[in-house]
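Running this now, will post back.
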Amino acid sequence: MKRSSLLAGSATLAVASIATLSLATTASAAPVRSAAYNGACGSGYGVVNSVPVGGKGTVYLTYSAKTGKNCVVTVRNSPGKAVFVHAELGPSDHSSAPVFDSGKYTTYAGPVYLAAKGRCVDWGGAIESVKVSVTGSNCGRLAPGVVVRH
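Update: finished.
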């Protein structure tokens, strides 16, 4: 084999290797998939609102017209090692204490329920050190306020 053919073959191999490395790097940098609602609140509950928890997961507010109850669940994007996860729901008028579920969980916290037909609710959740909360929500009278804390 001539020296020029050998160099051309080596150059082609080097370009192919770089292209493969570039594709592998691009594939691993794909965006994180958002957590989907997992149905944890049960039959008849539909998602009425949600808020992302940084890139870690999503808090879902659901409602059942049949029961007149809201439900909150915080779902991680990537289940795995148990980490702190929190779900919370309370009446905006503070007529009763909020209900919550917190602990080290692999997948989600909640569900937590509140009878809230015709009432505004405050709700939110946390995953590790990222906390989100929504106040005065889903009552038809007040605009919700979203607060994100790291």
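The helical segments are 3-28. More later if anyone needs it.
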